[in-house]
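Per reviewer request, we include the raw input and output of the structure prediction for the construct analysed in the revised manuscript.
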Amino acid sequence: METQREHPEAPSLALRVKALARGVRDLVSDHLELAALEARRAGAGFLKMVCAAVVIAILWVSAWLALLAAAIVWATSAGVPWPAALAIAALLNVVAGVALALWIRQQAREPLFAATRRQLGRGVDAPEKGASA
């Protein structure tokens, strides 16, 4: 009498492919869900940072105005008329604003990504500018 060993039947190739496809789909779905949750968290964190930056800007502006007010009060107590003290404060603010605007204009003249554009624009056979042969 021949003993038959009981071997569990291996699942068919079609069942294995279906299980693999289901596993890949579930893995992709889990990764997408994780990315969506992290994006939501990053967005909330970014919003908090923007709100904090707005509050900081308001605090700095109010501090600047308090310093200007103190300087104007000090100037008027030293004998400078109110209109002159206010005009001097306004003029100093305009000069500072013009200086910053000129600095921004000078910064804007520098091309963005200049080194990258040079690298991308240089041909294989084209020699570098300033290179001696």
